[in-house]
Amino acid sequence: MKWTPGVKYGRLGDDEKCETESRLSNLQKRRRCLILAKTLCTICFAAALGMFGIYVAGYGSPDCGTTDNDPTNNLNNTFAPQCTPITDNQRIDCWPESGGVSEHKCVQRGCCWKIAEQSSPGLSGVPWCYYPTNFQGYTVVNVQTQPNGMKVQLQTTQPSWWPNEVQQVTLDIEYDTANRLHFKFYDPNNARYEVPLNLNKTTQHASVNEYMVEVPSSGQFYIKVTRRSTGKILFSTQDAAPLVFTDQYLQLGTQLSTKYIYGLGEHRSAFLQSTEWTKMAFWSRDQPPSLDTNLYGVHPFYLNIEDDHKSHGVFLLNSNAMEVELQPAPSLTYRTTGGVLDFYVFTGPTPDEVIQQYTALIGRPFMPPYWALGFHLCRWGFNGGSSGMKEVINRMRAANMPYDVQWNDIDYMRDHLDWTLDRNHFNDLPDIVADLHNHGQHYMMIVDPGISNTQPSGSYPPYDDGITKDVFIKKPDGSGPIIGKVWPGNTAFPDFFHPNAEQYWTQHAQTYHNIVPYDGIWIDMNEPSNFYAGSVDGCPDNTIENPPWLPPVLTGYTLRDKTLCATAKQHLSTHYNLHSLYGHSEAIATKSALDTILGNKRSLVISRSTYPGTGVHSGHWMGDNNAQWIDTYYSVTGMLNFNLFGIPMVGSDICGFNGNTNTELCTRWMQLGAFYPFMRNHNTIGNKDQDPAVFDATTQNIMRDALNLRYTLLPYLYTMFYRSHVDGTPIIRPLFYQYPSSTNNVVYSVDVQFMWGKSLLITPTTSQGTTQGQGYLPTDRWYDWFDHSYIDSPGHLINFSLPMEHINLKIRGDSIIPLQEPAVTTTLARKNKFMLLAALSSTGTASGELYWDDGESRDSISGGKYNLISFKVSQGTLTSVIQIGGYTSESMLLGEVQLLGVNTSPTTIVVNGRTLPSADYTYSNKVLTVKNLSENLLQKLTVTWK
Ligand SMILES: *[C@@H]1O[C@H](CO)[C@@H](O)[C@H](O)[C@H]1NC(C)=O
Ligand SMILES: *[C@@H]1O[C@H](CO)[C@@H](O)[C@H](O)[C@H]1NC(C)=O
Ligand SMILES: *[C@@H]1O[C@H](CO)[C@@H](O)[C@H](O)[C@H]1NC(C)=O
Ligand SMILES: *[C@@H]1O[C@H](CO)[C@@H](O)[C@H](O)[C@H]1NC(C)=O
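The joint structure predicted for all components is written out below.
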């Protein structure tokens, strides 16, 4: 549920209040400063400084003194007719720069100047300088109708004030499919940078599209996209920021259907974004998750709800440093520093369908190996190197903790050099990995992109070979590799867009794999992170490094901070254009290397930096979080977002990365983490151990129960991954995906509770000392996982019991969930019998499905080597249909069927024609449990009860 200060559940501690306060963007703070008297300003910013803690360093001082006292200010247009009709909420910022505005300068731009009235709530970010109603911008000179679209020629009539305006702009409108509209603004006379993404541009033209597009045949330009069936607006530049198309400043706005808007990552925020003048910067950055800053990845995609509960999605395919501003009208403004404006609109109309349509374009998520769904354990800084690592492995085994994958952070490397093994501290790592494999477990380790350039010549092939193959990103003048600094000291950076890069990366991955046969790779620091600003030699001073406008990126509005120079040269273009694709390009190269090395075996890549389409190759963890309660909450909103972005394999560092965890926090986090699609407990160097086996016996029991619960549910999770892979259906879902037309709009802001697919509702505890709390229970029948009692909810807030022993888990009536008895590894668990849990609806129905294959072959699906079985209950009978039965080399035995909500005690149970002895079933509390089964799931199943 949403955080409500003062409410016991989700109660905010002091730290959290501070975080909430700091939700004001820096720009909002500045504006707030402007509104307050200048003396107050100092106080305001001092407070902001405190909130930002150490990350504020280098921010520069706020623009407090910019209100204009210039006596030459005689351009007062406050009451001009082109300004007065615009209410505070409808204003569109005409001064998107970070400061320097004055009435004089504003009016010179042809814009309106009016000090914001205090009518808007609180101290808002209402712009004082805003577009007038009659701003001409571009006009339409020609519209050409085409078989499946339009070509529109635009011409500037009122120049913007940005340098290098593109006078003629072409807009191509393409009716891609019935549910996907594509439109792109570009310069017809000069080719500009376009994002080198491998999109599935397949078009399936339909005779009737669900969208309609309107562009005037002459006069002031606008584009308006509506939903054919309802007339609702899906995208409209009317009453929104006008088109600006210059070399380094491009802008376009759209109305939003409602203020219910989601997505726009990677940012740390509530799942529901605020339209109260929220500014979000997009520029991938090595930044521990904090509010209102650009983080590791870039996802310019949003989901917007229409007022009749239908939904649509909008994707801006642009990779330059960008800003999205959400205004209360509600409307949205895009501002970007390069490329073209390339939009896709997806008409849904359900959120699931929007995501299916989006992932059909950017690529569907990869199918993980089964082991990747198990529990992953990592830490940076094993005491004593491999001996400390072995100690953890052994105590996890001794404690019988379900546990599949052991990881290493950078301490396994010699001097932090990629593709090397520290023989002094980790000499027996190959033996440890062999032992993990012998136990049916797997191993992953970190690899960073920075390749040391300071090793003696001939001693470090990854650098020497990179030079030979010419794969490193080059200096701005093209003379050799640009040098930054990361963990090993000074480094060069492979350009994963270079044609030789994949072969280069594969070769070194293979060489190391010959020593340590890892099963997957964790790619970190790939924003790319650089401890120098730009390079060891700094960066040139030009408009690429210092564009006329920049979004509010950390730190201090410079592109090079903590990364490479924007002018660095990559094979395809400048780093200015390609920066936010670095992690994406590394993920592709890394997955490809693993595919080559492991042959037909699936692997796992987990990347810190991501871009649309990264989910095809890699999962994501949400970076260097803190061992604090607030981080458990933001892990849920982060998961919801990445499932929207087509990267369902996602999770946060369980128990917290930075800072020491505590028993209660770690217990609750293990319980919540059991519902992360990617479940990893990870810890930073110097902090106390936090693996489950290090805690006291009571805590271990609770954590083991959480792990066993996850392992029991893995067949269901695996089936969801299959669906995500073939259809793009998200795994982690907010309640409104399932209940979009709830009469109560409260579902649109619920983001602590979440669903696993369509059948499980998870209500975690995200604050200390909380054993009860309010949550939303949508209109449906809900069974408690643990005591099997049910509630027929009318759709309201209820008190959830949040006992320390387990997480609150509810099953939606009408669901059949495939389960398996757990074991200490997925390798062993996969050998156990299956169970079916059928939670009946109030009318006695239920349905579900099970996907199964060998858990590791890459061609399982393409080769038809899998089983897909659907299950249904109606009128006292459970039946199965084998949709696909292509994987027969392993038996699939059903050991138990549990039916929840069986109203009357049955007297006869018949399974596949065999009447069961009464010893084989029990009935109590409306739960019928049929045990001692051994039915072959690859044959049609029939269970009847009377
Ligand atoms: C602008 O003009 C209006 C109407 O003439 C006047 O009330 C207002 O004080 C003026 N504002 C400034 C800053 O001069
Ligand atoms: C490619 O796009 C088409 C049209 O949208 C879609 O039908 C198809 O499923 C997509 N292919 C993949 C692999 O996602
Ligand atoms: C829910 O719990 C709160 C206190 O935690 C209590 O005041 C309230 O009466 C409870 N509501 C219901 C319906 O039990
Ligand atoms: C379990 O089922 C088998 C036949 O499938 C039967 O022989 C055996 O008695 C049953 N055991 C129990 C405890 O009901």
